[in-house]
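Need the bound structure for MP5, inputs here:
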Amino acid sequence: MKPIPAALTIAGTDPSGGAGIQADLKTFQELKTYGMSVITSVVAQNTTGVQDVHHIPEHMIEQQLKSVMSDIPFQAFKTGMLANPGIMDAVAEKISELNVLYIMDPVMVTTSGDTLISEDSRDYLRDILLPMSTLVTPNMPEAEVITGEKIDTSEDMQQAAKQIVHEFGADAALVKGGHLQDEAVDFLYDGKMMHTFSTERINTKNTHGTGCTYSAAITAYLSQGCTLSDAVQNAKDFITAAIRDSFPIGNGSGPTNQWAHRAERVN
Ligand SMILES: Nc1ncnc2c1ncn2[C@@H]1O[C@H](COP(=O)(O)OP(=O)(O)OP(=O)(O)O)[C@@H](O)[C@H]1O
Ligand SMILES: Cc1ncc(COP(=O)(O)O)c(N)n1
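Answer from helper R.:
Posting the output first, comments after.
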């Protein structure tokens, strides 16, 4: 019997439902992947920003991981918000026991501009977790923090993707250009080839949770056995539809629409 596609997200929460664990689980469900979650921080946030944060004690993060890992098999997992070195350490120790695909979304700052990880976490993220990853998905500001280089152009993005693989040890890097002016272009470097994924830039302020939703969609497609470049292309189609049809709700940057892809899917 074929295994049931299953995926795990290890991340922070968003009670307004647009980002973090909530976005990840909606995306897994939408893509017919059994979704599981380990919560690292409870974040009081909405479309306008972050109001408060409570970090889950490290022993409880470890216990959540043990509970899932000892019971249900999964083909892929992702990490999102890992707020400090203690949390990163707890996660690193448990995931080093896993032999499945690891997608790391190096979450640092929200769309609204709030910082989600401490300054002293950045080196840990780059030096300990990143080399464990099958794929890391930084946006341009995150790629700048990882590489220490200024990234303004698509050439800079491609250079950063190569550097993240060859110098910092991820198996593959997807540098996202949601922050570029006229084109939404992302570059995937898999250690051998550069792949380009491009769409027109959609003029909307509703981009709360785009990074979370995109990396969750990649994780779901990988759990189903897609190749890396197919998983990214399928996820790019998914996130583009979700942004195009995003919800104009809330007083700030509205959330993406995870069921938008249904209308566009041809099968
Ligand atoms: N306005 C947009 N129109 C079309 N695609 C977009 C737009 N904004 C982002 N994207 C795409 O959405 C995906 C998520 O990218 P993005 O770089 O925005 O993630 P992020 O920066 O982690 O999230 P955020 O921008 O919310 O911080 C990428 O494929 C990116 O190209
Ligand atoms: C718990 C949590 N994790 C990540 C993000 C980033 O969201 P975005 O995808 O908009 O950068 C967020 N706002 N909250």
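Comments: The chain has a mean pLDDT of 95. The chain has one domain: 6-264.
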